[in-house]
Design goal:
Length: about 140
């Protein structure tokens, strides 16, 4: 009877340990994925390199992929030690990353708004000039 209780206790402890390991792995993967974020970074990469040649884009993409992989491995192996050294918790890092993403998105949205505004002003000026040309140069 004591052996059965001991075996059951070990199984329960093993299950708890397995669940804890699974939770830790999911937490680490989600935290590191938000650091590297290849899916969210693709549109930003395309936006920033829209005027580059295809070969230059390819070289940059490969370099970014290698650097991201190195960052992922370094974060996985050293991240917890660095955070604990500075006394920073993981949720604080996640909030900071979210603020950076929001800031980047805002900058992209503002640049698009400025571009549309500039195009609108150019179109309006072009229409004004066209109207002047049709009326014989008089604006009154």
């Amino acid at each position: 009877m004591a052996r059965e209780a001991s075996a059951s206790s070990l199984e329960t402890e093993g299950v708890r340990l397995l669940i804890q390991v699974a939770k830790s792995i999911l937490l680490v993967v989600s935290a590191l994925f938000s650091d590297v974020d290849p899916i969210g970074g693709a549109p930003v990469f395309l936006l920033l390199t829209r005027d580059y040649a295809a070969e230059t884009r390819r070289v940059l993409a490969r370099r970014i992929a290698v650097d991201s992989f190195i960052l992922l491995i370094a974060s996985y192996t050293l991240g917890a030690h660095v955070l604990s050294f500075f006394g920073i918790s993981l949720p604080v890092v996640q909030v900071g990353g979210g603020l950076i993403v929001i800031s980047t998105g805002w900058a992209i949205a503002e640049s698009e708004r400025r571009e549309r505004s500039k195009l609108s002003r150019l179109s309006s000026a072009n229409g004004h000039l066209r109207g002047c040309a049709e009326s014989g140069g008089s604006t009154r």
